[in-house]
């Protein structure tokens, strides 16, 4: 994780913090949002100023619930926009929908969940990579951020595939009237009509 944080510094982040503790393992979305809210407050205290925008991923690759960003915004009492593909420092967010795009102006601070942006990611140059390698990324435990073990209210019981559908009945009549008659007969037999 530290090397990932250093990559963020290499592409332009000013500061990076790593919160690492066994308390975070196996937490549900509500507990993760509660942890992040306390981590945000710790980082704001370290910086001496509040954040204007808090960016989260749209959803994780394991549960794919897409709830953490919304829950974090609720806990922090901030505005929230999901599926953002473009954000501006003044709190303007562009969201893609099935019908097109929506632009929001959101009072800061605000939480945005980011979908795949409409631009290519920035890659660090050699000079920035070398500078980032020397950077020290502070690592905080749960106790450092006054985080106690939040009670997870949701527990994953397992994954299962939906039941396979049985194959339907093929009506092979050549004449349309015969095919309709056969279909009606079958539906009456199965009490579908």
Describe it for me?
With 193 residues, this protein is of the alpha/beta class. It is built from five helices and seven strands, in the order H-E-H-E-H-E-E-E-E-H-E-H. The protein has helices spanning 2-10, 29-47, 68-76, 126-134, 176-189, and strands at residues 18-19, 53-57, 79-88, 92-96, 101-105, 110-114, 139-140. It has a five-stranded mixed sheet, with helices on one face. A two-stranded parallel ribbon has the order 1-7. It is elongated and about 80 Å long. The mean pLDDT is 85.
Secondary-structure map with pairings?
Blueprint: H1 2-10, E1 18-19, H2 29-47, E2 53-57, H3 68-76, E3 79-88, E4 92-96, E5 101-105, E6 110-114, H4 126-134, E7 139-140, H5 176-189
Helix pairs in contact: 1-4, 2-3
| C-alpha Rg (nearest Å) | 25 Å
Helix content: 25-40%
- Total of DSSP H or I helical runs spanning 4+ residues: 5
- pLDDT under 50 segments (min length 5)? none
- Strand numbers in spatial order across the main sheet: 2-6-3-4-5
Strand content: 15-25%
Q: Give the integer mean of the pLDDT values.
A: 85
Shape descriptor: elongated
Oligomer description? single chain
In N-to-C order, the SSE pattern is HEHEHEEEEHEH
Calculate the terminal CA-CA distance, rounded to whole Å: 61 Å
Largest sheet, in brief, is: 5 strands, mixed
């Amino acid at each position: 994780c530290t090397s990932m944080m250093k990559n963020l510094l290499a592409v332009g982040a000013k500061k990076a913090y790593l919160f690492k503790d066994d308390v975070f393992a196996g937490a549900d979305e509500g507990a993760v949002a509660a942890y992040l809210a306390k981590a945000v407050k710790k980082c704001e205290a370290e910086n001496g100023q509040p954040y204007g925008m808090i960016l989260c991923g749209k959803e994780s690759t394991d549960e794919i619930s897409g709830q953490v960003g919304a829950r974090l915004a609720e806990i922090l009492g901030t505005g929230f926009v999901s599926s953002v593909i473009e954000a501006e420092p003044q709190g303007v967010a562009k969201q893609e929908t099935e019908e097109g795009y929506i632009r929001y102006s959101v009072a800061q601070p605000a939480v945005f969940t980011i979908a795949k942006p409409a631009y290519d990611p920035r890659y660090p140059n050699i000079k920035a990579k070398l500078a980032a390698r020397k950077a020290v990324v502070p690592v905080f435990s749960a106790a450092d951020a006054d985080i106690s073990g939040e009670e997870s209210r949701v527990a994953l019981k397992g994954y299962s595939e939906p039941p396979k559908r049985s194959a339907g009945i093929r009506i092979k009549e050549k004449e349309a009237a015969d095919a309709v008659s056969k279909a009606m007969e079958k539906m009456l037999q199965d009490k579908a009509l």
